[in-house]
Design a protein that fits this description.
The chain has about 210 residues and is mainly alpha-helical. The chain has ten helices and no strands. The model has no long low-confidence stretch (mean pLDDT about 85). It folds into two domains: about 110 residues, no CATH class; about 70 residues, no CATH class. The radius of gyration is 21 Å and the shape is globular.
Length: about 210
């Protein structure tokens, strides 16, 4: 629990907001702040998936983190727009995670994971396509922010790849390495997306 505690309570997002809440940021600082917010969100989601942790421990940690964020909000009257927006979102998401823990405590039989066999998808990738094509689609969807989680936050690449892999019965073992390969192709960067686009255009012109 100590590592996750450090990740959350001493997250880069909280440290950056603490030192720059009412200061105009440079472009590089804005990028760093946005990236730290994405990492904070990912840490929250990862925390809820650690079912071996006590809900009371999670509740204690999340409550302390929310309290820290709320103290920052008390100083937010003169905050810059970006900092104020990310701070508000972080408070709302942390509060949402707290409510999930309460739900697990109140309905343990529903909230706890059940060991069931996941049905295999009836869909398969056609022979002329490869898992790299699915990776191209996943990368474009994730970078564009087109796919969101139920709470409105951006989905991470690993989750999106996991869903698409299960849907089309393909295996992508290392999403980050595959993404690097896709975006660094020298020829036909958007091979699969071009095929989809051309088919849609051809259909619309019938």
């Amino acid at each position: 629990m100590a590592q996750t505690t450090s990740e959350l309570e001493e997250s880069l997002l909280i440290r950056l907001l603490t030192t720059s809440l009412d200061r105009r940021l440079t472009d590089s600082e804005r990028k760093a702040l946005n990236a730290s917010y994405e990492e904070y969100v990912n840490t929250l989601h990862r925390l809820q998936q650690e079912f071996n942790k006590s809900p009371l421990e999670l509740l204690h940690l999340l409550s302390r983190t929310k309290s820290h964020l709320c103290r920052l909000q008390d100083r937010a009257d003169t905050a810059e727009i970006l900092q104020a927006s990310l701070l508000k979102s972080a408070v709302m998401l942390t509060d949402f995670e707290i409510k999930l823990v309460y739900f697990r405590l109140r309905y343990p039989s529903i909230a706890n994971p059940v060991s069931v066999e996941i049905p295999k998808s009836p869909l398969f990738l056609s022979e002329q396509f490869t898992p790299t094509d699915i990776m191209e689609l996943a990368t474009a969807l994730q970078l564009s922010g087109a796919i969101r989680r139920i709470d409105g936050t951006r989905v991470d690449l690993a989750t999106l790849v996991d869903v698409l892999s299960g849907t089309f019965n393909v295996r992508i073992n290392n999403p980050e390495q595959c993404r690097y390969t896709v975006v660094n192709r020298k020829l036909r960067l958007t091979h699969f997306l071009d095929i989809l686009r051309n088919n849609l255009i051809a259909y619309s012109q019938r």
